[in-house]
């Protein structure tokens, strides 16, 4: 018996050939990601209906990593292609949020179905623009949405300095004297304590590096 459960292509998955083709191209250049803040998995919170002309009115306050809100706010600034939306979101969050084609293009199709955006074909790509209804919807709700780009993890990338610190510690471990190893251990212990103080909101004590305890 023939297996009829063929794998569906992007155009069948998302109901629109052009979106499917563009999503297929972009997927090859972006690592998989569900397009939303990983901390939001398992629940979207309250007050986040679809909204728009065919939805239930306002969407409520948006969480960090809300694809729908991010797309609408960016399109209010200017018309963009799908890949531009992905890149702009990545830039706005300093790389903390990298939405994939699989997150962006289905959302664009949904917004188009709701009449909030319209698309114009240009050289095989689709330029996305807010409709008048979409612009009005954003203006009415943007203030209540909050900032979908405000990731707690956005800001300077600590992986570079951490890598450098690890390399320096390895050098001391390999060639340092007993006294140097003891001094390096204290430096690392102080650094770990200072980082936790930063998270606790005590930056002043963290900057002193004072690890003395009261008797």
TrEMBL record:
Xref: InterPro entries: Tscrpt_reg_PadR_N, WH-like_DNA-bd_sf, WH_DNA-bd_sf
Compositionally biased spans, kind Basic residues: 41-53
Stretch list, region Disordered: 1-62
Superkingdom: Bacteria
Domain Transcription regulator PadR N-terminal residue range list: 71-139
Name this protein carries in UniProt: Transcriptional regulator, PadR family
Source organism of the structure: Prescottella equi ATCC 33707
